């Protein structure tokens, strides 16, 4: 590379501010409506406005921005919007703590975070910005709720619900993680309350079926949703209580094991438990049930590692197929909220039942033997759960168990003791929340008329501003007479407004549709615009939303389709779940695990002792190990921050934070900056036209071919594979080649090839580092801004690798020939020789003392 000028200093602050101002002024990324272009909708999950973005946001939004910028340059109309998931408990808690109003706190945070996102150079169409806490948005939440209410998909009932005492509100099943609140990690309790539900179970089959029609989703997410929906095909079976007309109803997926039932298990909260327990067992059973209920409240899940415990109730039920008396136990591994709260126990063919039977001395009866062998219940070490041949099962003995299943169900039906049934783990979505900062549920309670919907013309039901927020007791809305006291819309009598607010996941279950027409005042969204953009072509967010937001959004999309609002079956065509941002720790034997900023030259700043490599942790506020993006942007720039977050790991993998990696990204951008500015005089020539064939000169051809291989590689890595890290690596390789290229050696054409390659670097880099790329594009004297320029196409001529036949001469004699690409490297040619059978015959067992390759002509080896 021949340097022609004193370089201009790379001032990332001035460059980034200049281009951000220009993009905002000209509305650069407002989506057009060019009918000649294809449409593409790229969307990252919108954030909760906590006040500051973190490195997870930087990575998530940079991934989407690369795709959006790339596709615009590829000729698409690209919808790339942003908004705010802005209702929620944190705003209410902050308002209580600071003595302010949640709206004030929220909108201040929105303003701060919007500035941060703009400082990142993210190419959003801000004209479509939405905030879910705005009445203009949540009026349509209420409108949708009323439509679902009319269709029977929204209803109210008394229910045992998950309740977080710390947050003082109800949680959906999906918001309880290992018995803890998903938000604050407090232990969850069970309470019985009147609650509003959305009937997501009405869509259970379709939600499940479509998990097999989403090839663009990670299989892990689809599997999580299938497991959460939990479809089970089996039979309902009635076990009559001995000497009673009452029955215990169970559901089983294994009717083939009914003949092996040796005991019955009831949940501690089962309504029959107290009635059927004998007097002699009443005290013991009551004590056991109370303890199990308390433990279940704190655990709230069927944990595999919980010790299986139970107590005999003194009662028996009758096996409907054998007539045998079956003892009934209260057991801690059966939960009332799962199935019927009763489980027929078959120790020989269920491991949990096997362990329980061994613990309590209950018989084990084998009714299925493996093909070709017979099980002995006295010597079995574990349950046999596989397929096999029926045994000791009346007329079904000797049949394959899979063949016997439907016949056994038919026999149960003929006896009036059972029927084929399909069950689901999925439960209806409880949306009632006893907090203030959420969307009011638009119904009124009248003593005479019951529950009455608010009239559509009175929407939105707006949150009152003059409420007292204490965080203690019932919903703040319940303490506001101006809000609560209304007249019944049917009879005009005094009535009460509903004081629960909606789960904030309702807000995020349809926001992607609102972006299509965010200013619509006559409907939640315009159907024509929704059909123009939906489904979202690429959705990007964390896997932690697999059975929360993503499942709810799928349900809402189907429900709104059935209301005639659009014709789309699924909201997101493709889904990318990006990995976490992690941080390496260091281990100090005096102070435990510390972070790199607490070390100098490998020594602990607190005690001066030598440090060892520690664990890698997820970045989080609770761990106090977060990196402030503003600090990185201030020091290195937004382009560097973006580039590092995209280069350090593939998008779907975890990214390990590295200050050295950030500095490396900054140095690379400095190299690109100098590549242009040190050669600005040479770059005034016209770039080589790839349509004119190959350039003259071996070095020029090699650079030209590398340029187009890089175009092809980066295009495929962004558009087909999301391999951003390897795309950036390819650009770096091209930059390295440019620094090695002698652009003054072969005259004008070499300079033209050099310029072609340099311009290509700048264009290919632009989705990753847009500010510096725009600045360098201007340095070329271009009239059209880079973000409006066309993405380069790889030349098929340049990609055609010419081949040549090379003579292989060993110790002065021709021994073979190999076919090699024109201008192949020494290493590549040597590899061909070592894989050539004839050559290897003469080289085997000998040392290669000399290897000389005359490009495109001959290979000389001296061996001995």
Molecular structure report:
With 864 residues, the protein is an alpha+beta fold. Helix content is 35%, strand content 20%. It contains 26 helices and 35 strands. The strands form ten sheets. Strands 8, 9, 10, 11, 12, 13 and 16 form a seven-stranded mixed sheet that branches. Strands 2-1-24-25 form a four-stranded parallel sheet, with helices on one face. A hairpin with a 2-residue loop joins strand 5 (176-177) and strand 6. Helix 22 packs antiparallel against helix 23 (770-779). The longest helix has 24 residues, at 698-721. The relative contact order is 0.11.
Strand count, sense and barrel status of the largest sheet are:
7 strands, mixed
The portion of residues forming beta strands comes to: 15-25%
Rg, rounded, reads 35 Å
Through-space gap between termini: 41 Å
What's the total count of β strands?
Answer: 35
Percent range of helical residues: 25-40%
